[in-house]
Specification:
This protein has one domain (13-125): Serine Threonine Protein Phosphatase 5, Tetratricopeptide repeat (Alpha Horseshoe), CATH 1.25.40. The protein is built from six helices and no strands. The protein has helices at 13-25, 29-45, 49-65, 69-85, 89-105, 109-125. Helix 1 (13-25) runs antiparallel to helix 2 (29-45), helix 3 (49-65) packs antiparallel against helix 4 and helix 5 packs antiparallel against helix 6 (109-125).
Length: 126
């Protein structure tokens, strides 16, 4: 008798990323979030920090679209931190702008103003 158990399949972050994009494009944002978060984690483990940041950004964007602003702001801020750390300043600034918009939606005007100041300072350095 043979053993029909297959070896553990290595997950492909690119495939999972594409699945997230397809789900997002068809309006299935909740499902897309899970795919983007999984891809982000896999990219990060592989040392691909840009795509880790990008897929985290996409998960945040889906959270924003479902009006889960609290979760979205956390993810946008983390995506911005990663991007700014590795020198993708313009992308990081974009994530910060979305985070600011989340704070505005949450009526957290002081946090939105502080982020606006940070965005302005970063733009001046570019």
């Amino acid at each position: 008798m043979s053993n029909d158990v297959a070896p553990a399949e290595k997950k492909d972050p690119i495939k999972i990323h594409r699945e997230g994009t397809a789900l997002s494009d068809t309006g299935k944002h909740e499902d897309a979030i899970e795919k983007f978060l999984e891809a982000s984690e896999l990219y990060e483990k592989a040392g691909n920090l840009f795509d880790a940041s990008y897929t985290l950004f996409k998960a945040a964007e889906c959270s924003f679209l479902t009006k889960d602003f609290k979760t979205a702001v956390e993810r946008f801020l983390k995506a911005a931190d990663i991007s700014l750390e590795i020198g993708y300043d313009r992308f990081g600034i974009g994530a910060l702008e979305y985070a600011r918009d989340c704070y505005k939606a949450l009526k957290k005007t002081k946090k939105a103003a502080a982020l606006e100041k940070k965005i302005k300072e970063l733009k001046e350095k570019l």
